[in-house]
Amino acid sequence: MEATKKTGFRARDLGAALVWALAWTVLAAELSVSSAMGAAALGGALGFYLGGGLARTRLRTPAVLVGWPILLWVIVWLCRLPSTSEMLASGLGSETSFSVAALFSWLVASMCATGYLRFISARYPTWVALEVAVVTCFLAVPFAAHRDGFINRPHFLVDPLWSRGYDPMPFLFALGAITGA
Question: Does residue 110 sit in the same domain as residue 153?
């Protein structure tokens, strides 16, 4: 009996790609400029499909596991050139060069990291647990600061509530209840 591969579109894959996009958006919102959020989301979604597609090829696993981080390092180094090269930074301006470097760095880093995890978990299904743990950490980090009564974080959720005169605590409780359910 010949095994058949499912290569068509699956809604489950789209859902997983969107979860990765959301996770990278939340992480980028906490750590970088706003333009990097869209790039991180796009990179996370593309990385999901890239890693899954690469896992279906005949490439050897050790070659990908060793080569992928090296490739990531080289590409991120190239992405950082607008902010580290004096000539490029002076030509673009400091704010633009920093934003361009952050945008491309988040795009490439999110795409490569997601693709790497997806590749490993597609080849070895037990590694899906690592994928789930990483997404969980990305989504939990912004909300961790409010646990001991600090209701000033996450800023992207609390600041609009405070500015409209709302207490963020009920919203945080509701969000926690929805997430836990």
Answer: no
pLDDT digits (tens, 9 = 90+) for 84-105: 878 887 888 878 888 888 888 9
End-to-end Cα separation, the chain, in angstroms: 42
Same domain (yes/no): 123, 136 = yes
User: Which residue, among 1, 85, 32, 52, has the nearest Cα to 41 in the 3D structure?
Assistant: 32
Residue 15 has φ and ψ, to the nearest 5°, of: -60, -45
For the stretch 11-37, what's the b/e string if a residue is b when 16 or more beta carbons lie within 10 angstroms of its beta carbon? eeeeebbebbbbbbbbbbbeebbeebb
Same domain assignment for residues 84 and 159: no
Show the domain range for 175: 147-181
pLDDT tens digits, 1-32 = 444 455 566 778 888 899 999 999 988 887 88
Specify the residue for token string 């978990």: 121
Q: How many domains, in total, are found in the chain? A: 2
